[in-house]
Amino acid sequence: MKILVIGSGGREHAICAAFAASRRTDQIFCAPGNAGIANVADRVPIPAEDIDALAAFASGNSIDLTFVGGEGPLAMGIADVFGQRGLRIVGASKAAARLEASKAFAKEFMTRHAVPTAQYAICQSPQEAAAVLRSGRFGDATAPTVVKADGLAAGKGVIVAAGRNEALAAVSELEGIAGASAASRIVLEECLVGREVSLLMFADGNNFCLMPGTRDHKRLGEGDTGPNTGGMGTFTDDSLLTCQQLADIEASIIRPTLAGCAEEGFPFRGVLFLGLMMTEGGARVLEYNVRFGDPETQSLLVRLETDMVEVCEAILEGRLDRTEVRWRPGSSATVVLAAHGYPYSPRKGDAISGIDEAATLPDVRVFHAGTAVNERGEFLTSGGRVLGVTATGSDLDEALASAYGAVGRIKWDGMQYRRDIGK
Ligand code: AMP
Ligand code: GLY
User: Fold this and answer.
1) pLDDT tens string 143-154
2) How many angstroms is it from 230 CA to the middle of ligand 2?
3) Contact by Cβ (8 Å): 353, 377
4) Would you say the CB of residue 158 lies under 6 angstroms from ligand 1?
5) Which of 51, 68, 283, 310 has the lowest CB atom count within 10 Å?
6) E strands within 222-363?
7) How far apart are alpha carbons 392 and 396 in whole angstroms?
């Protein structure tokens, strides 16, 4: 089988590696891929957002199955275009991708289907948002409030403000931070308190298969300090969600969400990602993503035991209810290694040493996110998040020890990482 993976980050490296482990795969292409992905897939120099060129490539090269990594092409309708041309693709339709591409749409969808989430207000302008904040609807001047840009903003569209003044400042700065188009509408939310967990699933329109619970560490600094990033590390561990919590989430969130999608005419096919806050009153949805997370995927897919192609075929043929998706028992952890200056102005061109040594350690994988290769075949930094070092173990401590052991072999000038992933 010929596979095409769309995207260029650590997530897509992990997806390519999962396809490479399949007995059913003959050849993997990745558009546009990155220097590390070139070890498992043939790179195709087409940007992830150039949907027509990707569809032409898939037809011209008899691709049997395409898998989309990120939200950009999904929100632009890549699954619809491929579908219309009879090309098999795993990824949410344009209509379903609104669950991620518009936070206002997602909130109203949750209201329509009684999915538990934070109280909110949708505002059509910064002036309206400021008036709502001043009205006291989200509490007095000391109440923490969350300010969100409606549209896709590459992780930059959410500000958790400690009080009203901070929220007002966030409202007036949002356009500059998230971009005019993303911030054309503003969603205000009550600030929920609890433990954050992400729960992802494969979905085929009606049925779903859960992945292990996972957690992301979004702040740059240890102890969750410093600026927000795309994610500095993740882990999977069964202790993140109890069986009772999973049963409650299934009943109160997953079933109403999937039924709501089907009822509104966009059955959800692909990977659905629930960002959850475990509050005292139960799980609440913080956000939907319509795709795998980065770097959650790296920690998840190293535990996938079932053949990735079989999972994709079950999604496409609507038979996830008759498919057992198995995960290796135990835990996993991913530590992201970032470039000097990340997230503000990551430096490119630093020579990286020790990748091979790290990658040959037992139970360790090194996924590339932002690397380039020079004429001598050496890897250089070429993005903010450069590598993700992932390890599995029989428990979280073992996975973390292996991951950090491997991190210790890798070096470049200005390399940054958190030493407290999974703690
Ligand atoms: P989102 O992109 O909507 O998941 O928001 C990014 C991050 O902001 C989440 O991972 C949470 O840490 C935080 N966040 C979002 N919404 C809320 C909320 N209503 N209450 C508390 N924290 C939130
Ligand atoms: N790591 C969070 C995300 O991919 O959205």
Assistant:
1) 999 999 999 988
2) 6
3) no
4) yes
5) 310
6) 225-228, 233-236, 269-279, 282-289, 331-338
7) 8
Distance between CA atoms of residues 263 and 257, nearest Å: 10
pLDDT per residue over 34-49, tens digit each?
Answer: 999 999 999 999 999 9
278 phi-psi bin (left φ>0, alpha ψ -120 to 50, beta other) = beta
Residue 66 has which token pair?
A: 């395409």
Show the tokens assigned to 369.
């996110």
CA of 193, closest atom in ligand 1: 21
Give the C-alpha separation, 312 to 402, whole Å: 30
Per-residue pLDDT reduced to its tens digit, 281-308: 999 999 999 999 999 999 999 999 999 9
Q: DSSP string of 156-196?
A: -SEEEESSHHHHHHHHHHHHHHH-TTGGGSEEEEEPP-SEE
Atom of ligand 2 nearest to the CA of 218: 1
Instruction: Give me the sign of the Cα torsion angle 241, 418, 296, 325.
Output: negative
State whether the beta carbon of 275 lies less than 6 angstroms from ligand 1: yes
Is residue 174 very low, low, confident or very high in pLDDT (cuts 50, 70, 90)? Answer: confident
Q: How far is the CA of 137 from the centre of ligand 2 (A)?
A: 30
Q: What does each C-alpha distance from 235 to 58, 241, 403 come to in angstroms?
A: 34, 13, 11
Q: CB-hemisphere CA count at 13 Å for 330? A: 18
Q: In what order do the strands lie in the sheet with 27-32?
A: 42-43, 27-32, 2-7, 65-68, 89-90
Atom nearest to 295 CA in ligand 2: 1
Reported pTM: 0.96
Q: Is 100 in the pocket of ligand 1 (CB under 6 A)?
A: no
Task: State whether residue 260 is helix, strand or coil.
Answer: helix
Q: What are the angstrom distances between the C-alpha of 68 and each of 45, 78, 89, 167, 327? A: 16, 9, 8, 35, 21
Kindly report whether the peptide bond that precedes residue 362 is cis, defined as omega within 30 degrees of 0: no
Residue entry with tokens 């558009």: 31
232 burial type by CB count under 10 A (0-12 exposed, 13-18 middle, 19+ buried): buried
- Residue with the nearest Cα to atom 4 of ligand 2? 293
